[in-house]
User: Fold this.
Amino acid sequence: MMAPPAGPTPPEGLVPGLPGRYYTDEDHFARERRLVFARSWQCVDRAEALAEPGRFLVYPAGDDSVLVIRGKDDRLRAFHNVCRHRGARLCTEETGATGALGKSVRCMYHGWSYALDGRLTAAPNLADLPPGAREQLGLVPVRAQEWLGYLWVNLDGQAPPLPETAGRRAAAVLGSPAKLDRYGVGALRRASSITYDVAANWKVITENFMECYHCAPLHPQLTAVLPQFASGYGTMTGAAPDGAAFAAGRGYSLSGRAAGPRLPGLEPGDGQLHALVLYPTAFLVLTPDHVAVYRLNPVSAGRTTLVVDTMFAPGHAESDDFDPDDTISLRDLTVRQDIEAVERCQLGMRSSAYQGVLVPAEHAIIGFYRDVLGSLGEPLPPAYEHG
Amino acid sequence: MMAPPAGPTPPEGLVPGLPGRYYTDEDHFARERRLVFARSWQCVDRAEALAEPGRFLVYPAGDDSVLVIRGKDDRLRAFHNVCRHRGARLCTEETGATGALGKSVRCMYHGWSYALDGRLTAAPNLADLPPGAREQLGLVPVRAQEWLGYLWVNLDGQAPPLPETAGRRAAAVLGSPAKLDRYGVGALRRASSITYDVAANWKVITENFMECYHCAPLHPQLTAVLPQFASGYGTMTGAAPDGAAFAAGRGYSLSGRAAGPRLPGLEPGDGQLHALVLYPTAFLVLTPDHVAVYRLNPVSAGRTTLVVDTMFAPGHAESDDFDPDDTISLRDLTVRQDIEAVERCQLGMRSSAYQGVLVPAEHAIIGFYRDVLGSLGEPLPPAYEHG
Amino acid sequence: MMAPPAGPTPPEGLVPGLPGRYYTDEDHFARERRLVFARSWQCVDRAEALAEPGRFLVYPAGDDSVLVIRGKDDRLRAFHNVCRHRGARLCTEETGATGALGKSVRCMYHGWSYALDGRLTAAPNLADLPPGAREQLGLVPVRAQEWLGYLWVNLDGQAPPLPETAGRRAAAVLGSPAKLDRYGVGALRRASSITYDVAANWKVITENFMECYHCAPLHPQLTAVLPQFASGYGTMTGAAPDGAAFAAGRGYSLSGRAAGPRLPGLEPGDGQLHALVLYPTAFLVLTPDHVAVYRLNPVSAGRTTLVVDTMFAPGHAESDDFDPDDTISLRDLTVRQDIEAVERCQLGMRSSAYQGVLVPAEHAIIGFYRDVLGSLGEPLPPAYEHG
Assistant:
């Protein structure tokens, strides 16, 4: 595939987007796999999904497959889902319970067995193995961490801990480190998790999340309850340092009904909507009565798996006054509207005439370009130095 | 993929075909996309398909998508089907009417709107845009031209006008510039348009069209009405400067019934069949009672979309003496027979033993090879210097 | 695709497998196509499948297609399945009878006809062809040979005859050249031929066939009749020079019933099971009452067509005491168990953490690695010099 020509120069003051091949070229995507995704924390799933010892789940990460297991000591651990003997994939289901009463992972090919902490515990003819084999041939560990009630994995192993990076960024957006803590995300109960197969590059999805210039034309149901969004300026523009305000008597719901019971830890001033990107592949939406987490798993240059979780305070769903489906439906509708738009962009980015521009309401995206180019070790064009 | 070995040398006097990789290799196809298709006029559709202002159609051209619209001034214009803001594909249906009572093209993502002549007319927050944005951010135009009642587009924009190239070639084949005019192709009425998905390279389809050496074994129904074709020598060999003669009392029809009413502008000597290649991707068949146009849209090295239109004089279809389906059926049958043959060639061209040869009855194809190699800027082998 | 990192060094004494990219990379596969498969004998089918003159079959070999025909002189010949004129694939069915009462192969495109021995015999306008064309434009021959009742083809044409290579290797495994002859494989009757589409590299399938370390965990039905296999040491380890012994009163069958009537030529000491690899793409299993042949046709790095034939002595199937389905079912079950395992390995070999190791019971596979690296012209790592 050829790089598309540079296209016409945008009028002075408009900021050009990244070239189309950054979104469509599989070689570029392979570089991102290596330099962006493998080196950063990927959000795998809610830790509560693995409630008992021996429960596992499998997380696909490009050609890699990560096996996450809760151990007998109740710790969550992650490993490469590869037998150390001949390389067979150990677990092929998305999730389940390990065999032998939850005590071990056994390879179906030659019967090598591993403890839930990864140690090789049994293999036919193991007595014949040379010294050290049993100790050295445990499952290859993958770095794992719990944060916000989620399990995150890091294939590279060099990334700093999440609170130091994503946590510090979130604190900067929210104005204080304590504010995110007040939402108590780790203790919330997930009411819904919807998976979307999106025919678009992960960056297009991120850029869509970062601007609200599209909200008026694309999301009439959303702007009905969040009138500020109709202005084109979302929460990341600096226009709303305290978050976007809901219309009087309205909450985040398809019917427009008022918000449900407030999350228990919030202070009186916390009642707005905040949207944050936890670079590179997770988003966070904080509202007074629920929290949503978006998890992106890039599959190829033009395809991304997106999972959206919606979480409420424990007991929330049982409240007589509150319909969680009303909230979930507005988010699902909004996500589907966004997907139609980003899939059209993905098509257009292959065009020889493609050259996107950012209007002022979208300038928060420039910060995302800086992050991406920084991860790739590429020089920063002057147009991206400010904004 | 490896280039196949050169293969055995053909006997003296037989002319070798192009190497197999010219037909099967995707990298070679990408070069043709750039140097052949993008630089030449592509036949999009009958201009009458866009009858009213605001009617549009979308023409796929590799990674590009071309949007053709009839303006309020009744002019047909073509644009890249890409929003100038963030690159979203503007129209996703094959054909339709633009919105707002046929007055504008509106991008569903952020609501940017374009007049039917391409000017940017409205965008949310447009007042905030820097000076010049409105003027500079119109749709990117694609060069377009009407000829023979068809709309043609040229992505490169450097090609000379169609009458200067295709028209002059057609005149050379037909013996005079006036003869093509006498068929009045622009005023004919399309009775049928059939789309074929062909698993073969566009050049194999062209070569098949250029020789009649296959007519006797492959097309018994065709040679029944055009006995000259059974000789193996078609109209492009120099054997029939005045076109191929129909059998006495026969016309171009599956039943063999006599030709229908003559096209109104023809002179007495115009009563034969002529077949012309409008290089690179359109063919023309002229007969006394109808005209057919073949339009090729190359999709990949091994796949081509072929559309065949059949057109009669206005009023023809209503004549009691004439059955247009009889004509259309013979062409459809003939095309399907050809498709089976060219798809077998496409398979064989991947073989390490492939080396095609042209017999004397096929030497008109040498001229096509010269055109292709010329477009690609490749040196002409001595074997292709004559013929 | 990137080469996976080297991974951790295996404990001393364990032998590392080939790198993952040898199994997953399409460029590496293209090298194997050229240097391994094209240069060796490929087992096409049972010669009896082409019983009468004019019967043909088509064998796919990557981008090549080989046409095997029985001639009027009863000889089997192989040709490239490509017309010498324009390259059309001559025969598109898998098997059938040639036209014109079994006397010729006729290309459907332009009617060129070839005798069953490949000579060009007729072409429209052949009189116009230059001198020598008729003689020089016969079908391009492919080297073919019958051995063990099978037809084998060799695209390269340089390989030594099969008995000199595969035959000598088989004799070395069996202890004498005469032993293989005593099974009379050429005269056996095929009772079953099952085709499996395996999502794994051909080498993974071969390595699975070469070790029995997996037999206890994966094949309980097989080890029930062949208890030696439960030890993890198969017939290729040197542990069983006379073959693997059946349990007393048991034969190769799903029910465990005793073996059927012995193959007629066997001597009293020949009553064990032998498994042999006929490098690169055929396997042989010899038992007292039947012979199985495995034929691999590699399609891509990650896909292989596997055909397994089971053959008995003539008259065997009619015997009242014997149920061939009982034998065929055990093999089919065993093959399906193996396919699940090798497909899991194929998935794991893409992992960045992949590094397989061979335990002592699997060291016969080192000889296979030597063969592969030798075919590829690659230097032999010290770890593969012995074993």
Chain A has eleven helices and 17 strands. Chain A has two domains: 15-40+166-384, 43-147. Residues 170 and 176 of chain A are 9 Å apart (CA to CA). The radius of gyration of chain A is 23 Å.
